[in-house]
Amino acid sequence: xxxxxxxxxxxxxxxxxxxxxxxxxxxxxxxxxxxxxxxxxxxxxxxxxxxxxxxxxxxxxxxxxxxxxxxxxxxxxxxxxxxxxxxxxxxxxxxxxxxxxxxxxxxxxxxxxxxxxxxxxxxxxxxxxxxxxxxxxxxxxxxxxxxxxxxxxxxxxxxxxxxxxxxxxxxxxxxxxxx
Length: 179
Hints:
By secondary structure, the protein is of the alpha+beta class.
């Protein structure tokens, strides 16, 4: 089961768990109310996994690739790590399936507080369009992930503030409905 919790700000190193004091865990239902979806799959059989295929078909995830984030594999590693950790949103869903390694997605809750979601091998997450978020590796400094998209990939991140985008306005309306 995925683990998530509120984090303290700021921290010198983004890669630690950074639990708020006192600890404040976040459950799957609270993540769902934010529009964040999670599945636990068998990453060892991702190439022929009927459960993954079912999710892809139901959610129209037609495009995919695999990215490995570590110093030896990712060109411009330091620059990319900083870019991933900059608070931003996308105009489309962000879908990631961890095939190996681990890392953290941080998402903003309805009161603009950070929630850290620990992503381990087998975790698949969908972040809704318009949600402010960021990604960082953990202390292992390694993750291999499948990136999925509806249609052709769109890589554009809009750093905060980006409240003027329709995707952000739609997300805020979604939050208001789930409150």
